Fold Sugar ABC transporter permease.
Amino acid sequence: MSSNRPIRLFRNLNAKISAIPMIATALVVFVGGTVWTIIYSFTNSKLLPRAKFVGLDQYERLWNSNKWLISIENLFIFGICSLIFSFIIGFVLAALLDQKIRFEDTFRSIFLFPFALSFIVTGLVWQWLLNPDFGIQSVVRSLGWESFDFDPLYNANIVIYGILIAALWQGTGLVMCLMLAGLRGIDEDIWKAARVDGIPMWKTYLFIVIPMMRPVFITAVVIIASGIVRVYDLVVAQTSGGPGIASEVPAKYVYDAMFLSQNLGQGFAASTMMLLSVAIVVIPWAYLEFGGRKSHG
């Protein structure tokens, strides 16, 4: 085996040499930038970075900030609801399209179209739709339901759900396409066997199809989770963090700390906590996809 290692080392040598600039760039930009951010999160950097270390002061200030705590609470609510509803709506739509319905391509394009829009455009559109003066509430009241109230963006208690509506409208189409690709990968013989055995369709989906789509679900979780942690544009476009600070999210907290308050140390500390939350998602996914595969092999 050892005699084959030099041969393997020089296999596809041109491709490996061509990849060196990309690997070096990734190490310098991403890894280097991450390490630099973490190191300077322990300093009292203000307008410009400065290496005057203050220990955990920035993190203590961060977790004593009501604005940050509200951001974390909003992210938790937004994240859990996004995952649940994206999966349910996306899978149901994919299952319906998988029935070989007429105009499938048209419906697929309609459902996926919002994902092609920028988050700013989506946020502005839903800001208009949820405006009580000329949006959904106004239209319904003009039809005779005078007591109808639907103004989530102006209610501090439910404003995060107004942002959630826009996020689901934009992102569910992508989840649908991932699920549809997974469903199309299921062997047709499995469906035939289930029908012959008299297994109801919902049991076939629940106990046979969904377990077989595990890689698709894991990929969808990672994509959705990374978008949840980075959510910023929708909040800025719809509410700018209001009413008050009711719809603040961590990404906006980082921006405000670094560019409005000119407190780089506080922004770096918040960025590091966001990085930690991403690692909590990515590391288990990497283990399930690669580590688990090796252990079974």
Notes: The domain at 56-296 is CATH 1.10.3720.10 (MetI-like fold).
